[in-house]
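During the second year of the project, the team shifted from modelling isolated chains to modelling whole assemblies. The rationale, set out in the original proposal, was that interfaces cannot be judged from single-chain predictions alone. As a representative example for this report, we include one of the complexes processed in the last quarter. Its constituent sequences, exactly as entered into the pipeline, are reproduced here:
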Amino acid sequence: MSLLQFFKSSKSGGSASVAKERLQILVAHERLNRSGHDFLPAMKQDILRVVEKYFQVADNTISVRLDTDGDCSTLEVNVQLPENS
Amino acid sequence: MARIIVVTSGKGGVGKTTTSASFATGLAMKGHRTVVIDFDVGLRNLDLIMGCERRVVYDLVNVINGEAALHQALIKDKHTENLSVLPASQTRDKEALTLEGIEAVFDELAKDFEYIICDSPAGIEHGALMALYFADEAIITTNPEVSSVRDSDRILGILQSKSRRAEKKLDPVKEHLLLTRYNPTRVEMGDMLNVEDVQEILAIPLLAVVPESKDVLKASNHGIPVIHQQTTDAGQAYNDMVARFLGAELPHRFIEPPKKGFFQKVFRSRA
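Output from the structure prediction step:
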């Protein structure tokens, strides 16, 4: 086995390159989530309060997402309204 | 002004306590009055690594609660002059640490010590936040492994937002990368993240690389920080770390695998 390994160039294609790639994507994503977007939960509560004036909605029926791709940010707000409204 | 340095990582088991012990010892060996504080309330372990577990009478929480004076809780290191240890409490009440309490202890320590080293507990909970809050500098202890790198990045985010320096909008906490348990042979085989990879991802300056070493376990078995073993790779790596921290410019070592002869390569026993 060690004789084989000696003649086999194993430098490329090791698992480390996979690890690096996965980490780069993950870390970039996590940094985005924490960079100054701490207001999202508060904003979600504010939106919910406005919607609540007109509909009976539960806390978990609203989702707020902020995505940034390059210099373009999109805010996605999803409110699930009750069926009898 | 005393410098407050936190040894932190997010992830557990990466070598924070080992590093705290050797880093503090190294600073003291260079003549700097140093105190190393265990912040891992409930899971005290620095005393074991420093070999002073039988001399613990009072601890950090006792001092904060006013049950003991600071000088009663400080343990003078037996091997190294200029070095004291402040052990953690074994209480299960994690909230025993308060910012006001810690600040008062630091103010008093600053009169007698040049360096205050804080050995952080793992995680990002109360204890870890308490350990890093007052830091001027941070040693980000990281293993070349995905979960450790990710957690280090989390902790960097916390340093940049939740520390005193961040909250008071002062100069940011100075960050240092310490790569521990590095195995150059596995790196060469492509199975372990290399120094450049980790540095590129975390984007902070590299302080030192400490190779994976059997001597670290041996040293903790004896309760003598591994930096005392200057014939070992790990001991020398920590020595380099301390020298570089104090401003020396040294080339990084222990990044290349040890050179082997042809026969060793061919007839290598299963590693």
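The first helix of chain B runs from residue 16 to 29. Chain B touches chain A through 25 residues (CB under 8 Å).
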